[in-house]
Specification:
single chain; alpha/beta; Rossmann fold; 2 domains; six-stranded parallel sheet; 20 helices; 12 strands; 46% helix; 13% strand
Length: 426
C-alpha cells in the first residue's frame, strides 16, 4: 500500500512510531478509505504536511505533542473552519500520573524530565482540539474532564494483519505433551505486571510437569525462576508481521496487568485480539477493556484475583476447552474487530463529531461520499499490504531535524543523550 502525498478532505497523522501509530493511524486510514471517504496518511515530520492539510476539512492528530509548529497547523485548520481531532490511546496527557510508569528509562532524571515535558505538551494539544477519539472507555472518561466531546474508536486489525494471522493459525502443530503458556511483552514496563502472576504460574507448573512457559519480547525473570529453567523458553522481540507465528505457538496466552495502575486501565484489549486471530485463548486481568472484549468461560477468561488465574489456567489445561474457547475468540474478533466492521462506523461517527463540534458545514461536504462505499470483495490483503518503508520513517535523523527546527537545541541535546544512553545500557 503506497501513500499518495496529495491534499485530501481527511488527513490522519501521528507524532510517534511503532505499533501505536499502526493501530491508530495506518489501520484507521484503511478503514476511512474503505468507508468511501478521501483520506491521506502522514506523519508530523513529513515535509509535505502543510500542503497536505491546506484543504483538509478534518485532521486527526495521533499522539502529537503541542509546539510552535503544531500551533501553526492548528491555527491554519481553524482559520478555514476545519475540524481538529486528537486521537489518544494512552494516558500521556496527565503528568500527575507519571509516577505510575514502571520503566527503567526513568531512573535517568534527564529522560524523566523530558517525558514529563511531553506529557504537558500532549495536554496542551488536547486543550486545543475540537474533539477527541479514544481507544478505550476509560481514556474517554478521563478526556471528558477537559470539557471536550469524546468518542471511543476501538482498535481493530487490518486486512494484512488478518491474512498473516490466518496463515499462522492454519499451520498444524506437531502433537506433543507440552502445554505452552505464553506471554508477549513489548517493553520492560511490564515486569511488575508479570511478577503479579508469578506465584500462580509457579504453583501450577509445580503441579503439572507438562506446562512450559514461553516469554516473547522484553521481560526480566527473577532468580525465583531458576528452578524452572529447563521449562522456560524465550523469543526475542519480533515485528508485528512475525508476531502471529509466535502467538500461534502458545496454547494459552496471558495478559496480566496491575489493575490499580491508571496506565494499565487505559490499555485496549489488543493482546486478546492478536491471540484470538490465531485461535489461542487468553486469560487477562479484569480491566474494563478486557471485560468488554471477553465473555468469561466462552471466548476467554478475565481474572481479578490469584484464585481467578488458577481457575482459568486449570480449565484451559483441558485440550477440548482450549480448542472451543480459542475458536469462540477467533469468531468473536472476526465479527467485531475487522477492518470492514470498523469502517462501517466511520460515516455516522464523522457526522456526529462534525455536528456536535459545531462544524455542520464540514459534514455537508462529506455527505456526497457516503454512498460510495466499495464492496468488500474489492478490498484484498494484497491491495492493502503496507509498504514497510512507510514504517521506517521518520528515522532518528528526521526526528532530530524536527526537534531542532520546532523545539530547541536543548531538547535535541537531551533526546540525543537518551538515545545514546539506551544504546550503552542495551
Amino acid at each position: 500500500m503506497q501513500i499518495k502525498h496529495q491534499p485530501s478532505s481527511i488527513v490522519i497523522l501521528s507524532g510517534v512510531q511503532g505499533d501505536t501509530r499502526r493501530y491508530r493511524t495506518l489501520h484507521p486510514y484503511q478503514q476511512i478509505r474503505m468507508a468511501g471517504f478521501p483520506c491521506t496518511l502522514s506523519h508530523l515530520t513529513d515535509s509535505h504536511l502543510p500542503r497536505l492539510i491546506s484543504n483538509a476539512q478534518v485532521v486527526i492528530f495521533h499522539r502529537v505533542a503541542y509546539d510552535r509548529y503544531v500551533e501553526g497547523l492548528v491555527q491554519s485548520i481553524h482559520s478555514r473552519q476545519g475540524l481538529v481531532i486528537l486521537d489518544i490511546d494512552d494516558l500521556i496527557f496527565d503528568v500527575n500520573a507519571f509516577h505510575w510508569i514502571d520503566s527503567p528509562d526513568f531512573k535517568d532524571p534527564i529522560r524523566a524530565n523530558l517525558y514529563q515535558e511531553e506529557m504537558n505538551r500532549h495536554k496542551q494539544m488536547l486543550e486545543h482540539s475540537d474533539a477527541i477519539l479514544a481507544s478505550t472507555d476509560y481514556l474517554a472518561g478521563l478526556a471528558r474532564k477537559f470539557s471536550k466531546p469524546v468518542w471511543v474508536h476501538r482498535n481493530a486489525f487490518s486486512l494484512e494483519m488478518h491474512a498473516i494471522s490466518e496463515k499462522a493459525r492454519l499451520i498444524q502443530r506437531l502433537p506433543g505433551n507440552k502445554i505452552v503458556i505464553g506471554y508477549a511483552s513489548g517493553t520492560l514496563t511490564h515486569n511488575k505486571d508479570f511478577a503479579m502472576i508469578t506465584p500462580v504460574l509457579q504453583a501450577v507448573m509445580k503441579r503439572n510437569s507438562q506446562i512450559h512457559l514461553k516469554i516473547a519480547g522484553r521481560l526480566t525473570l527473577g532468580k525465583e525462576w531458576a528452578q524452572f529453567k529447563s521449562r522456560i523458553s524465550k523469543v526475542p522481540l519480533v515485528s508485528w508481521r512475525e508476531l502471529p507465528a509466535v502467538l500461534a505457538g502458545f496454547d494459552i496466552n496471558l495478559a496480566p496487568l496491575l489493575m490499580d495502575n491508571p496506565f494499565n486501565k487505559s490499555k485496549s484489549a489488543i493482546k486478546f485480539m492478536e491471540a484470538a486471530l490465531v485461535g489461542v485463548p487468553t486469560i487477562a486481568s479484569a480491566t474494563e477493556a478486557f471485560q468488554s472484549a471477553i465473555d468469561p468461560g466462552r471466548n476467554g477468561f478475565t481474572a481479578a484475583s490469584e484464585a481467578d488465574w488458577i481457575m482459568a489456567i486449570e480449565r484451559l489445561l483441558d485440550p477440548l476447552e482450549r480448542k472451543q474457547i480459542g475458536e469462540a475468540a477467533f469468531k468473536e474478533v472476526l465479527e467485531k474487530d475487522s477492518a470492514m466492521n470498523r469502517s462501517s462506523e466511520w460515516p455516522a461517527k464523522l457526522q456526529e463529531i462534525c455536528l456536535i463540534s459545531g462544524k455542520p458545514a464540514v459534514w455537508e461536504n462529506f455527505e456526497r461520499f457516503s454512498d460510495q462505499v466499495e464492496k468488500s470483495s474489492n478490498w484484498t490483503p494484497e491491495s492493502w499490504r503496507l509498504d514497510p518503508e512507510i514504517e521506517e520513517h521518520p528515522n532518528r535523523l528526521e526526528q532530530g531535524i524536527y526537534s531542532l527546527r520546532h523545539r530547541d537545541v536543548g531538547t535535541l541535546a537531551r533526546q540525543v543523550w537518551v538515545f545514546f544512553r539506551r544504546l550503552v545500557n542495551g
